[in-house]
Amino acid sequence: EVSTQAPSAATARVTAAATLAESRASVAPELQYFDGKGLAEPARILMALAGSPLTDTRWRMDMSRPYGQRCVGFMQAKASGALAPALDEASVQLLWRAVRPHLQHPEALLQKKAYKTLQALASRHAPFVSANLSELREALEAALACCQPACKAKRLGCLQSLLSQLPQDRLLELLPSLLGEVVLATKEPNVKTRAAAFDLLLALAEHLEKRAGPAAADGAAALERLLTMAAAGLAGKTPHMIAATLLALSRLVYEYRASASLVPFATKLLRACLTLLSHRAQEVIRAVIVYIKVA
What we know:
Elements (H helix, E strand, L loop, with lengths): L8 H18 L3 E5 L6 H10 L4 E5 L12 H9 L8 H11 L8 H17 L1 H6 L1 H12 L7 H12 L4 H18 L5 H21 L4 H16 L7 H17 L7 H12 L7 H13 L1
Parallel strand pairs: 1-2
Helix pairs in contact: 5-8, 8-10, 9-10, 10-11, 10-12, 12-14
């Protein structure tokens, strides 16, 4: 006689656990690394000794290609996001505590690595940024005086990732203290630093415009506020600061030249800039001419 009774709850749990274990065992983890031993070899040996299945994906090097493009597999995996870190909250906090002292390290290479790591954390872990905003702000402000010239581009990229995760009110709170650094970076000798400064400036304008409100007038008001804050540098005490402010304003005005709502403000700003043509410093006069061309 066949029993028609339903299985007990304990039997159902055991069956579900066995099914889950079988499904996990059937999925082999994948190890992606270059076609060589390197850092991946210990993991390969340990998996082999444990008898665990492993999908060993090896990227081959093509030495006929230019340097930096020889490993096509690595470039494709990086572009697809397959190498993006997936850390839990505790691991993110641990990594941040390990990285923070290196933001002020005297060696430029370690500074670059620290800023690059922090940029990755900020771009992929928004809750970490919101929960540790005060600490992040304090650490970055303290590291500004120690930032090596070769690391400024990485620092600006890190700031862009951090600011992109903030809501409108927090972004406006931090903007006055960071805008001066961004404006001055537009006059840096390093080409990458200047490019990173202009990218961050445009990213700030884009974020402020999108998060201001649904109406077009709200976005225009946010842009005008950013331009007003940037134009405060025209009252700077040094020609370098005035010239950097003019270059930053030139880039913003050129980017939003099609916005009719900003025409009155741009006209007033042009009149103020024309008065600087009588300045004694040549770099200020050159910056004014650049602004006139784009305005």
